[in-house]
Amino acid sequence: MRHHHIPMLLVPSEEEHTWSIYNALDENFLELKLSLFHNKRFSGSSHGWLVIVNEDYTLTLHKPYFISKDDISASKTSVHLPCFFPPELDNLDYDTNDETDPEEEHFAHEDDSDPEDYLYLDSSYHVLKVLITADPLINPNDCTIVVKYGGLGKLAFIKYGKDTTWTKIEDDQFRGYEDMVYYKNQIYVHSRGKLASFDPCKGTIKLIAPTIFSLRATMKYLVESCGELLVVERFLYFFEDGYERITKMFIVFKFDFDEAKWIEIESLGDFTLFVGDNSSISISATEFNVQANCIYFTHDEVGLPTKTNESCDLGVYCLKSKSLKLYCNLDSTTFHRVYNRPPIWILPPNGY
User: Fold this and answer.
1) pLDDT of residue 24
2) Separation CA 23–CA 29 (nearest Å)
3) Most buried residue among 86, 199, 246, 317 by CB atoms closer than 10 A?
4) Which of 43, 66, 62 shows the shortest CA–CA distance to 53?
């Protein structure tokens, strides 16, 4: 999918319910700020919609309209979705005697936390990421919403305007979902190295490619770029206190559908990627006059709110030079807000 706008980064401001807007093209904050009655983490961003999980575990999609700084009455459109699975109910079906698939032993320690710990998460941390296949107001008949949720990375979906309840995506051969993408009219999901396709009409999931074994990445993102399906692997370093982290490097693979295998690539060509808690985005670097062959990343997947985090893992990584630099320099007073309200990329609407 080709995007016609450069993503904007929402960063928590010093005012409650208010977000500053960072433009990566100009490397500056806009004078305009986004005001929403929401002072917690956004649970996702897709198709220009921000995802909010309410206290009662219903979901709200907000599409903010970024307008000129002279008009302070920002217009917003909202879509309300049914109640999701609360953590205390969802964990009832967790099988503590479940054995690890030998093929997945490489990933066995990536999910070693006790699922009961997640009972103490607030609602905004229960849903980790959201994929929207089409704009629910413009193309409601084609809109399916897929949610990654819970400490074990489960998936659920709802067909907008057709379903009244959420449906879990369950298959014993797939566990610990990492990301999902809508590519060539098909939903693809990544599960511990496995690539699978999902059909929301039939509720079935099909293995496309078995596990790949590269270096052990901390996080993985699926994204369409220049007609190719890519997986972006992100490697983090955690300091001894377990709270501070920094990104060290990225490795990118494209999927060869003829050979049914992943192939490592050294270049994104003219394209630049934006990854984080949002549905990953690819744009033409030439069209927007940004540096090509780079990956902009945010401080995402924050996790359990245990204490104030004093680090903010924002930056841009160049695949050619394998170098990393910070962007959107934040002062120390902003760091403590990032843990409860992590920055997130969003695509501005048409007409911005």
Assistant:
1) 82
2) 6
3) 317
4) 43
d(CA 329, CA 120): 32
Distance of CA 211 to the CA centre of its chain: 21
Instruction: Between 8 and 303, name the one with better pLDDT.
Output: 8
Per-residue pLDDT band for 319 (boundaries 50, 70, 90) equals very high
> The domain containing residue 106 runs over which residues?
8-346
At residue 96 the predicted structure's pLDDT band, cuts being 50, 70 and 90, is very low
135 within some domain: yes
Q: What is the pTM for the complete model shown?
A: 0.85
Task: Report yes or no on 352 lying in a domain.
Answer: no
CATH number at residue 247: 2.120.10
Can you give the pLDDT at residue 349? 65
Counted residue by residue, the chain has a size of: 352
Could you tell me how far CA 250 lies from the centroid of its own chain?
A: 16
Asked whether residue 351 is domain-assigned, the answer is no
Q: Tell me which long-range contacts 229-234 makes (C-beta under 8 A, separation of at least 24).
A: 229/181, 229/183, 229/188, 229/254, 229/255, 229/257, 230/254, 230/255, 230/265, 230/273, 231/179, 231/190, 231/195, 231/255, 231/262, 232/273, 232/275, 232/280, 232/295, 234/275, 234/297
Number of domains in the chain: 1
Would you give the distance in Å from CA 102 to the centre of its chain? 28
Flag whether 293 is in a domain.
yes
